[in-house]
Design goal:
mainly alpha; binds zinc ion; globular; 5 helices
Length: 99
């Protein structure tokens, strides 16, 4: 869709890609250029910011275990949570761009 594309062009990263990068971002394992795009996306996408905060909180709740030590099961749960939101985020972006 045209609207969605415009939003993507702003950041070069879609929300779905951001979701996949969150784990590496928090572990500071992103390439500098990727990290820049990631942060740029966060600056215009409140949904991804709140996801990042949710993710961080979840990490904190699992009690100062390192993100690396989060069981894959938990990690997948978090990612699934975001993916479920993505369709809504996409629709929201579309509305935002078109109105
Ligand atoms: Zn986003």
């Amino acid at each position: 869709m045209a609207g969605r594309k415009a939003a993507e062009a702003l950041t070069n990263k879609t929300c779905k890609q951001i979701a996949d990068l969150v784990f590496n971002y928090l572990n500071d394992k992103l390439e500098p250029a990727v990290k820049r795009d990631f942060q740029r996306h966060l600056s215009i996408c409140p949904d991804c910011v709140s996801f990042l905060n949710t993710y961080k909180k979840t990490v904190a709740v699992t009690r100062s275990v390192r993100a690396e030590e989060i069981p894959p099961k938990v990690r997948n749960k978090i990612l699934a949570f975001l993916r479920k939101r993505i369709s809504r985020v996409g629709a929201y972006l579309l509305i935002l761009v078109l109105t």
